[in-house]
Design goal:
The chain contains 13 helices and 13 strands. By secondary structure, the protein is an alpha/beta fold. The strands form three sheets. Strands 7-6-8-9-10-11-12 form a seven-stranded mixed beta sheet. Strands 2-3-4-13 form a four-stranded mixed beta sheet, with no helix packed on it. It has a two-stranded antiparallel sheet with strand order 1-5.
């Protein structure tokens, strides 16, 4: 182990004996009391020394024999310490790819903030390279989602869509203007390759080209239809193969002037598209009739999709996807997040499992979900 104080957390002395790590309340922590010798020793925790050398340095500074080990355990337990050589074999292999790591260092720094154990951030970053995500729909939202996931180190990002790129599909971070007239899937796959930190070609696995096939090998499916109605009111029949195969999937898109992120469906655990449809019909008996009209009477016109809203939605959807892939429980699980122009006021709409839905999520006892408080600072007293 080569201990290093997490560089992403800015440090400052609140007084002569108290250090604050971090600025934002969500991750800030106060350490104290810290004597002068220990404060000087902290400067040596920069990842260039192993524990034996750190113990020797501590002795030279007059620290007690077991002081270094106790300090390392204390900092590690508080989530302030990282390991410059940790993360396992996959992390070691990734470190050897210097150009790739240079691209991913901001992502690694962010992961180090939200993980507690030394080396956990690097372990999660390396694990992304073994994951496979499928994005269905590569318009203004889906294409940006695919490029962000690829750029954040997800090893394989498959994209599915039909037709050719239209001028209104073009968006910063998404499909470029030179792709107009090209096949959407071809242009999107090129975007994914160009966004990847190593620019490596993404091999499309057998069964990945058709919705409903190959779900069992996917870490996550993101459904981002160019027609936002299919995200706002997803078709349960289309989602059946995903639910039956146990494939997690996330809905996102823009309908008229409203952006939608969620729900993230964890089959058998959280509400699915069928639950959503049944719940809407319970609350509004005319909903199935209206939905049938909207789906059958689609006019041949360009759908409303504000560029700033679409970019915001894509970023939030990609963030929720990465949080799930990294092992967290994002706030979109069983929840739909919505924001509308011009206010852009995000609000959550819980989506409850329906008792009569064949997905089975409504008949399982889920227990209580505790949401942590992110406002007060954590304090670690000496």
């Amino acid at each position: 182990m080569h201990p290093i104080l997490k560089p992403a957390l800015r440090r400052g002395w609140r007084d002569l004996n108290t250090i604050q790590f971090g600025v934002a309340p969500a991750h800030a922590l106060v350490l104290g009391p810290v004597d002068t010798a220990t404060g000087s020793f902290l400067q040596l925790l920069d990842g260039t020394r192993g524990l034996p050398l750190l113990r020797d340095e501590g002795k030279r500074m007059g620290l007690p024999d077991d002081h270094v080990d106790k300090l390392v355990r204390r900092l590690s337990g508080a989530g302030l310490l990282d390991d410059a050589t940790g993360g396992g074999a996959a992390a070691d292999a990734l470190r050897k790819k210097t150009p790739v790591m240079d691209r991913l260092r901001p992502d690694l720094a962010s992961l180090s903030v939200v993980t507690r154990g030394p080396g956990d951030g690097m372990r999660k970053l390396a694990a992304r390279r073994a994951m496979r995500v499928q994005v269905r729909g590569v318009g203004r939202v889906g294409a940006v989602v695919a490029s962000v996931l690829s750029g954040a180190g997800v090893g394989q990002v498959d994209v599915l869509d039909g037709g050719v790129v239209e001028s209104w599909d073009v968006a910063p971070g998404g499909l470029p203007v030179e792709s107009v007239g090209q096949r959407r899937d071809t242009a999107a796959r090129r975007l994914v390759r160009q966004s990847a930190p190593d620019g490596a070609p993404r091999r499309v696995r057998k069964g990945a080209g058709t919705p409903g096939e190959g779900e069992a090998g996917l870490s996550l499916v993101i459904i981002a239809p160019r027609d936002g109605l299919d995200a706002h009111a997803p078709d349960p029949l289309t989602a059946e193969p995903l639910v039956s195969s146990g494939t997690p999937h996330l809905y996102t898109g823009v309908i008229e002037g409203t952006g939608v992120v969620g729900p993230l469906v964890l089959p058998g655990t959280t509400a699915c598209a069928g639950c959503l449809a049944l719940d809407r019909a319970d609350r509004d008996p005319t909903w199935p009739r209206m939905l049938a009209q909207w789906r059958s009477g689609r006019a041949r016109h360009v759908h409303a999709c504000d560029l700033a809203l679409a970019t915001t939605v894509a970023g939030l959807a990609a963030a929720h996807a990465l949080a799930y892939l990294d092992g967290a429980a994002p706030a979109s699980a069983g929840v739909r997040w919505e924001a509308s122009v011009p206010g852009f006021d995000w609000h959550a709409r819980p989506v409850s499992p329906h008792l009569t839905c064949p997905c089975g999520a409504g008949v399982v006892d889920k227990g209580e979900h505790l949401v942590g408080d992110t406002e007060p600072q954590d304090t670690m007293a000496g």
